[in-house]
Amino acid sequence: MDSLVISALTLISVFYCFLSGTHGAAPQFAGLPTSVTVGEQETADRLIYTLTVTDADNDAFNCDILSSNPAGAPFRVLKDPVTTKFGVYTNGATFNFGTDPQYQLTVQCDDNTGNTPTAVLSVDILAGDKITFSNIPTTTTHAALTTLINSAIFDVDATDLLNHNPLTYTMTSIPTTTSFKIDATTGAITTARDLKFETNAAIDLYVTVSDGSISVTEKVRVQLTDLNNVPSFTNLPATISVNEDTSSGTVLYTVTSYDADPGATLSYTMTVTPSQYSGLFTFATNTLQLSLTAGQTFDYETRSSFTVSFTVTDTMATTGPIDLTVNINNINEACYFDKSYYYVSLAEATAGSVSYNPNFLVRDYDGAASYSLSFASGNNSNRFSIDSSSGIISFATDYNIDNGAMPSSVILTVVCTDPTSKTGTSKVEITITDVNDNAPSFAQSTYTITVDQYDAAGSLMGTVAPTDPDSGVNGEFSCSGSSTATSATTYYSIGADCGVYLLSSPSGNLDYGTISRFTITAVDKGSPALTGTTYVDVIYRETTTTTTTTTAAPSTYNFWDDSGAVAAFSIAIVLAAIMLAVLLYYLLRCCFTGMCCGPEPCDFMECCRGYERPRRVQRRLVTPEKPKRPRRDDFDYWREDSDYGSLEKYEPPSRRPSPA
């Protein structure tokens, strides 16, 4: 009987082991064993440690405290309903550092398949200490569309019972978001971006404060109102099938989208997998139509399925990528190339002088025995020729890319045509490299530059830069100069920029009129390098004023640089001013006194009629005297005779002066 019982128990054990083996690995702890610290004065139910446990079989599991030392420790394991993670919490704690300064907690996780791994968490009690949050847990509400970056969300306030400083704040969020940040020293929570980009209506911010020994965590819930509505596609994901002989430009699918926010402006993107086939598809963002790109065809034998992914955004939230699967139906087709893209490199040259074989490999599953090759028109294809049988490419015209005369890179469409007139296409990118076929050249065979005694050392006296029609590096050059005259290299130098520079003033050392000749050589940077030469005669001359050094270009006369002309002009200005002053004086005299020169005013022009002259004091007559001559208001003496006193016979009675 006993043997039967033993046999039955053995079978049960074996069966149990078999069941356990079918469920694979047990839950695995990460981060344990470790230790945490709790303040002796802590009484609230606090999260002191978050367990990190995984199950390779994705079996559901539950965790709890299997045992503690000392026994009956005031801790428990709870599962956070938001994060779905297990954590160790204090449970109605009353700690006594004197009697129990440390606890050993054995945590067990059970996946209900017989796998029950354990791990140890040590809890150290810190004598007399406690960290307390004064204003969390709590909930704060904000309007998403109007809350901008760096806006204040909440100020977390925590204190340490023993005033341990500094306190350090850290924060995590559920669900994960980049919209918030916390100041590590002040606990101030602010926005890390405009909240119009946030798509979650409620975010739990888990704030942890630590004094270096104790860490305490609590939650701030951020509730968002006026949240932006996320745009969406209404007919994706989807799957379509098209024939491989579908004509290029055909609309394959029309996407539809929706945004609950009135007036929202939506934008779209499209990607193709595999990416090398992106050129097959064209997506019009204004009509939301997906088409087969112009000039492109499907090839079932090369690729029978594509994934076209779309995204939509209203600038604040993005949906996608969401896929449209495009399956290709096999149809009898024309010839096709083994590659969708070929690359050719040619050096610029005359027509027919160079050639290149891209090794086009063309097949036709319909069994056609022959085909011909050609270029589709457009994109400078007329400048190239292709052998219809071998596919060898050459120039159809003299090709020159110097200074952008012709493009240095073109992408052409190669067409194969089978006997049934069905065609296939591929792309060939032809890169044309520059040849150093032009030497630097100078405009003149000899240049003349003058230097005088006033020019300062280090001055640029002139430039004789050449030109090089080549492009890129081949068109770049530098200059150097040489001279057989010692005076030339003593006082002058030729820069790499083809400039003539004054090393030191020749004043007192060279005679005026001394000519120093340099041979200037310009060397381009092509391979092989080409050169050009010219001569520069530097003439040392005397000048009476400090003037700008004459360059190779002819100078023009400047009036203000001529000291004699400026002096003559200044004298003329002074004389004109004097004459103007004299003229003004006589005009004023004419206005107020007339043209007469006697003691009496004679305003015969009546230009000062409104001016009241001061009355003359009547002289006392000692002896009889003749009546004073009356004032004349006009050129009356023009009407007098030679007696100068016979006015009565000419003046009308109304103008005759009354007796004095």
UniProtKB/TrEMBL annotation:
**Residue ranges of every copy of the Cadherin domain listed in the record:** 30-139, 155-233, 234-360, 338-442, 443-556
Locations listed in the record? Membrane
Q: Where are the transmembrane segments?
A: 565-588
Domain of life of the organism encoding this protein: Eukaryota
Q: Which GO terms describe its biological process?
A: homophilic cell adhesion via plasma membrane adhesion molecules
Gene Ontology cellular component list:
plasma membrane
Pfam assignment, any one: Cadherin
Q: Which PROSITE patterns match?
A: CADHERIN_1, CADHERIN_2
Q: What is its main location?
A: membrane
Q: Which SMART domains match?
A: CA
Report if keyword Glycoprotein is assigned.
Answer: yes
**This protein's UniProt keywords:** Calcium, Glycoprotein, Membrane, Repeat, Signal, Transmembrane, Transmembrane helix
* Membrane topology annotation: Single-pass membrane protein
What GO molecular function annotations does the UniProt record carry, in alphabetical order?
calcium ion binding
Signal peptide span per the entry? 1-24
Q: Which PANTHER family did the record assign?
A: CADHERIN-3, CADHERIN-87A
| Name of the featured protein | Protocadherin-like wing polarity protein stan isoform X2
- Could you tell me which species this protein originates from? Crassostrea virginica
